[in-house]
Design brief:
Layout (H helix, E strand, L loop, with lengths): L1 H9 L1 H13 L16 E6 L12 E6 L10 E4 L8 E2 L12 H4 L9 H12 L2 H23 L1 H30 L4 H5 L4 H10 L6 H7 L5 H14 L5 H6 L6 H14 L2 H13 L13
Parallel strand pairs: 1-2, 1-3, 3-4
Helix pairs in contact: 1-2, 5-6, 6-8, 8-10, 10-12, 12-13
Length: 295
Amino acid sequence: MTHIRDALVSSPVLSRVSDFYYRHTLLAADVIKPVAARAQNIIAVSADLGPIGPMPHGTLWVRTADPCGVRAARLVVAPGPLPCPSVVAKGDGRPLNAGDRVLRVLARDADPNRIMRGSIGFFLFSGPLVALFAFVLSLAALCLSRLAARAPATAAALLALYLFACMPAARCAALKVVLENRPEKVSEYATSGSETRRYLAVTTFPGAVAEETLRRMLTDPSPRVRINALVEAGRRRARGLLDEVVALTRDPELNVRTKACWALGRIGAGKALDELERIAREDPSGTCATTRTRR
């Protein structure tokens, strides 16, 4: 999945497709999951509710007088009905999330994807997807064999075009083999003028990339290099790179902004958490949907 994500952001056309997917479909990020199973739940809580109680790891709780104004909230909890989709908390004197009930009980009323999730699960895991893939491959093989019998030159041209399209992937694989066998070349790759080499450095041996080099990678022209540099900055909990990470929360690429939020959650400094709350309030795309922080 990581390679698919990076392939999408490295192509201008596929990047537009990816952005459309994340912005406009119910499958965006991990929204298709049940509310309690999502990696990050931004929960807006009405200011007039009592103590929240247990707050599971991986949630960002925003207490506010205007919970409907938290544009990226996955769930809004209030003492009564609101003009935005919300769940009503029971006034039973117990903490709001006692027994994890906000996510596991109340959230059942705000899960519009239950039927869709079951249908997708059937398609993916009960055979139809495998059968469709086998059918497409068989059809392509049959068409190519018939074309080769009638027009060998055309079939050869199509085969050559296919091999030509595979050349960038083959070159990337060859460069990766070289790096894996000679890890001392990681600094050379990381500072190379070749986007492919920089990408391989930060994905193959990210821990060996110097912090100053990683800082430059966070401003790299290539979105897939920026994404993986953010992942490494988050893994290191690199507070020295906080300003660069914050700057990428405004990156034009949605996937870059998402990983910037993830890195902020890992860094966990006061400024990082303040930035996450700002994004939760201002960015309607739910950019910080996959961060791992707790507030």
